[in-house]
Amino acid sequence: MTIPRFHSVTAKQAVATVAVVLVLSLAGSLLELFFDWHAMRDQIRAQMPQILDTVEGSAVEAAYQLNPGLAAKVVDGLLGYGIVVGGRLTDNFGDLLAERNRGQEAAAGPVADMLFGDISTYTRELAKIGGGGRTVVGKLDVRLSSRAIAGGFYGRALVNAALGLVRSLGIVALVVGIFYVMITRPLVRLAQVVAQVDPAHPGTHLVARLKGHGDDELGQLVDSLNALLESSQAGLDQRDQAQSELTALAQTLERRVAERTRELEAAGEEIRSLNNILKAENVRLGTELEVSRRIQQMVLPTRIELAGISGLDVAAYMEPANEVGGDYYDILHGEGGRVRIGIGDVTGHGLESGVVMLMTQSAVRTLVTSDEPDAVRTLDILNRTIFQNVQRMGCEKNLTLALLDYRPGPAEGAEGAAGHLRVSGQHESVIIVRRGGAVELVDTMDLGLPLGLVDDVGPFIAETTIALEAGDTVVLYTDGVTEAADNRHQLYGLERLCQVVADHWPADADAIKEAVVADVKRHIGDQPLYDDVTLIVLKQNVPTAQRMYLA
Amino acid sequence: MQIVVSGENYSVEWDSETRTAALAGILRLNGLEEYAPISRFLSEAVPAGSMTLDLRRLEFLNSSGIAMLSKFVIEIRNRKTVDLGMVGSKAVAWQGKSLPNLCKLMPTLDMQIV
Question: What is the complex's ipTM, to 2 decimals?
Answer without folding.
Answer: 0.73
